[in-house]
Amino acid sequence: MTITENSSKQAQRKAAMAVLAHSEPAEISGRLSAIELPDHENLREPENGLVMVRGRIGGDGAPFNLGEATVSRAAVRLSTGEVGFGYTLGRDREKARMIALCDALIQSNEFCETVEAGVIAPLRAAMMARRSQKAAETAATRVDFYTLVRGEG
Are 69 and 89 in contact (CB under 8 A)? Predict the structure, then answer.
């Protein structure tokens, strides 16, 4: 695999993980049930934990510990050897497992296109539709302020 192919594959993985992290678990589950999944095993059982969230004042100040956030993580290995990892904010272990399974499937040459077309693309379209709807709702409440110049003097 060349450097260009490798970076393209990493970019595809990154984009898919962003879509999966912002999708509802029921949506992911419904899309995954529509495709034939290969045999797989849990390398790391889904579990909940905490991560420290760091912040910066103004975006460029010294970093500081903002607080803790709950996350769920999982790791899955396909029978063909690909390993996928899934992380999500919150305490949804099943969502983390489904994300890990999708990550492993995206790395597989055999299942990559099927998962992209059957799971990722529809979830991306739904996510973009939700964002557009929210933007339209927000734009409807926009108020333009302007200053009137008085005609005195």
Answer: yes
150 CB neighbour count, 10 Å cutoff: 6
Residue whose C-alpha is closest to residue 69's, from 55, 82, 83: 55
Task: Let me know: does 108 contact 76? Beta carbons within 8 Å.
Answer: no
DSSP letter for each residue of 2-27:
-HHHHHHHHHHHHHHHHHHHTS-HHH
Cβ(93)–Cβ(76) under 8 Å?
Answer: no
Please check the confidence at residue 110 and state whether its pLDDT lies above 80.
yes
Amino acid in position 40: H
Tell me what the mean pLDDT of segment 127-136 comes to.
Answer: 94
Contact 45, 76 (CB under 8 A): no
Query: Please, are residues 13 and 103 in contact by the beta-carbon 8 Å criterion?
Result: yes
